[in-house]
Sequence to fold (510 residues):
Amino acid sequence: MKCDEIRELLSLYIDRELDESQMKIVADHLAACDSCKNEYTGIMEMVSLLGEIEEAPVPDLFENRWKSVLKNKKKKVNWRIFTSIAAIFAVCVISIALFNNTAGNLPDQMKGTEQSGIASQSKTPTSEGIDATQKKENPPNQNLADNQVIIDNDDSYSKTVNEKNSVLSASSDSVAQDNKKDDSDSNQEMKVYGSADISSGESGNEDENMAAASEAVTEATRRSFSAMSPKSYSDNTEAVPSQGLERNSAAVQYYTNLMKEKLEGFDYQVIESKYINGEWHFKVFIFHGKDGNTYNEDILIVGKDGAIEVCYANEFMGIQ
Amino acid sequence: MSVDLREKRLIERAKAGDESCFESLILGCQNKAYNIALRYLKNEEDAMDALQESFIKIYRHLNNFKEDSRFDTWVYRIIVNTCNDFLRKNSNRKNTDSIYKTENEKETVIEIPDSSGSPEHVYENKEKTDYILSCLDKMTLEQKEIILLRDVHGFSYEEISEILDCSIGTVKSRINRSRLKLRELYLEQN
Fold:
C-alpha cells in the first residue's frame, strides 16, 4: 500500500475503526515508513492534546437562568392560549350584542316617525303614491286621496282585508284614516286598510261593486304591504313585520323558504308572524291561486320542528 | 433500574408535562452541552444564550423526539444546529465589532482550568492547547466541528453521524481530512 493510501487510513487507525487486516497493514507500513510514522505521531499528539482539554464548568447562574426562562416561556404559551380564547369569546359576545341591538331596533324604527320613512321608500306604481310627510302631518280620521294606505299597530286583527271588502264603497274615492299607533302592543301586529271608504251605510252596494272594488283593494293591499316592510318590495315577496320575526330571522327565513316552495305559483303575502309555544304562526294573504282565481283570503301556516303545515286554508285553493 | 430505562421513564414523564423530569434530563447533559456551545461560540454569554435557546427548543419539541435514538445525542444535535445558526446570524456582528476594536482590547480568552501535572507541564500543555485551538479557528466550520466533536468531546463516529445528521462514511472521511488539515496548519505555524 502506498503512503497516500496509508495516510487516508491514519485517522481510522488511530480511532481503531479499521478491521484487523487493515490495522495490520497500516501498522506494518508505519513500522517501515518514517514519513508516515512522523505523520501518525504528529496526529496522535494533536488528538491527545485536544483530548486533554478539560470541560469548563457551567456558570452557576446559568441553571437558574434557563429554568426561569423556560417557566416564563411556558407562561407565555398559556397566556397566548388564554388570550386567544378570550378574544374569541369577546368577538362572540360583541357579535351577539350587535345582532340583538340591530334586530331589536328595527321594529322600533317602524314605530312613529320612522314608519312614514319606510312608507316613503315604497314604490307606488301610480302618481298617487304615499306622501310620507303629508301622512305624518295628517290628523287621524282625515280623508286621504285614493289608494293611500295606513299602517296601524292596533292589536285587533279581526278587521281583515276581506271584511273590509264587504264594506267597500264603489267610488273608492276617499279613505277613512285610522292613524293610531299603539306602542304598548306587545305583538306589534299591523293592520292594513285598503283604499276604500269604510262605511257601513253603503254596504248595500256590495254585490254590484264587488268586482271593481276587489281589484282596487288588491292593488292597495299590495302597496300597503310594500309600505310596511322594512325593505322595498316591488313584487309579491314576504313582508317581515314582527319584532319576534326579526329576532329569529334565521328561523323565519327558513320557514319562509319552505312556504315559498309550498306556495309556488300562488300570488301571496306573509302579513303576520307570531311565535307561540314553540311554533311559528304565519298569516298569509292569498291574492291569487295557482289556477289564477282571485281569493283575497288569509291562510294560517304553522312552522314547527323544521316543517310547515297549513292549518287553515280554503279547500278550493288546493293547498295541502 | 438501568440508565436507559430510567432515561426512558424520565422522557415519558417529561413528555407528559412533568417539568422536574425535563430538568433532570437536561441536567444530565448540561455540562457537555455547555462546552460544545462554548467551543463553537468561544464566548460564555453567547454559549449560555445558545444553550438557553436550545433548551427551550428541546422542551417545545420534546414530543417529536423518537426514542430509537439517545436523548443526549438528540440534545447535542439541537445545540450544534443552534450554535451554527447563531454563528451565521452573528457573522455580520463580528465584522462590526472589529471596526470599533481598540488597540488595547484583547480577544476573549476562555479560561479552562487544568489541575493535572506539574506547573511546568501544565503551562506547556496550556500553551500547546491554546496553540492548537488557534489552529482550529483557522479551519472551516465543517472541519472544526468534527474535530471538536471527535477529539475534544470524544463522541463516537456513530454519535457524530447522528449529531451532524450524516452517514458514518462521511464522518470517517471528514475526520481524516480535518485531522490532516489541522496537522498541516499546526506545522505551518510552528
